[in-house]
Specification:
Blueprint (H helix, E strand, L loop, with lengths): L6 E5 L14 E2 L6 E3 L10 E3 L6
Antiparallel strand pairs: 1-2, 3-4
């Protein structure tokens, strides 16, 4: 994966993730996995990017 690739379809400001684009606030992955904390998420805090990997 090219850390300088910015997937303009996936904005991301989490710069302590290994998938964060080094040059801009985008993800460097082609796609991400989004998951929920329960069966019926009702707000942003109820979901997570499950593609996150800490640097």
């Amino acid at each position: 994966m090219d850390k300088n690739y910015a997937n303009k379809s996936i904005e991301c400001s989490v710069d302590n993730c290994v998938n964060h684009c080094a040059s801009d606030n985008y993800c460097a992955l082609q796609k991400i996995i989004v998951g929920a904390h329960g069966k019926n998420p009702s707000d942003c805090q109820s979901t997570d990017c499950q593609s996150f990997v800490e640097k």
